[in-house]
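Write out a record, fold above all:
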Amino acid sequence: MTGSSGTRPAAFAVWALTRAVLLLWVTKVLTPPGLDVTSDVSVIYHGWSEVLRSGTYPESDVTWQYPPVAALAVLSPALLPFLDYATAFFVLAFLCDALVLGMLLRASDGPGRRTAGVWVWVAGVPLLGTTAYARYDVMVTAVAVAALLAGLRHPRVLGALAAFGALLKVWPALLLAGTARGRATRLAWATAAAVAAGLLLVCVAAAPGALAFLGFQRDRGTEVESLGALVFHVWRQFGWEGRVELHYGSLEFLGPHVPLVSTLALGLSVAAFGWLLVWRLRARTFGVSTPADAAFTAVLLFTTTSRVISPQYMLWLVGLAAVCLVLRESRMGWPAVLVVAATGVTQLEFPIGFVHVVSSDAQGLALMFLRNGLLVAACVLAALRLWRDTVRTPGREAAEPALSPAGRADTPASAP
């Protein structure tokens, strides 16, 4: 499906309607389904902003688990001083959502492009419900989308925005995983390293506690919505004697064998990194969509294997999937569909059915197995497609020209 004059107004109309509902929900003009998730903005984020305005990071608060540039997101409601903190935050989240839509609409126009990615964003965000605007992840996702789209022509911009995003919430560092070998990689990675180092120095010099988040992240356990948590959801049916408690800002399983499962989850993340490294070394064909496809696959792998899968993490995947599907060359269609479906299930388990998840009853088990099963399936399919599209056998590689008819450039194996 190519970008057409008929599709664009339809996408914008659906976007406007669904976002109006989201704004009415988060501002409590209408009552949203499930738990109220907006209190994190009015209480936690607002509290952090007061601490940050005093000239220090919230270094004594274990729930502050974000890189130092996250302070900009927390302080951003000050840009709208005529609104209260929470309302200003929601308006800024809405504007970032609109920015992503605009970037995708613009990127979908032209040869080799399509509007499928626009529809992924239009549909995916409201499927998450009020969580989409009640966390700052939509702001980070906007930076990531801008980085990947700019990186199609400007590797330095990709590197700079990836570094900025990484210091907002770490995961955008993975946007650099699929840069084309040679000059593009050198420019993007060197720029990212320089920008990250400069920003870190500024943050550390500006206020104490800039790196306190590292210790708080290290000590987290197995959150009830994670893949590893399925072990304890099932085990509770057979008498496991652990419990669910608020721990480091999220509800986690605590009790016998939890440290072991948390360690195994870390092992899965290490294995995912190992696969990504092997792919990077073996990949020979880098097409127009490879950076976006690799970034989507990498973030999908690390999200799924994490000890914590917070609902707002789905926004990352929806945004990256949208960028992939703007590019006609990308073959991430089915993984994107699975991610969008998983996003809808995520709203069903949080906030709508979270009491069932916490209690590990039949409904909670079904929701967790379905959502995490969709993510695992998306991981496998995305990884297989990325591998098949970019890794060539020696015989096939030798028989093909340097530039294939599809426009994919085969590059030397010696470059990083």
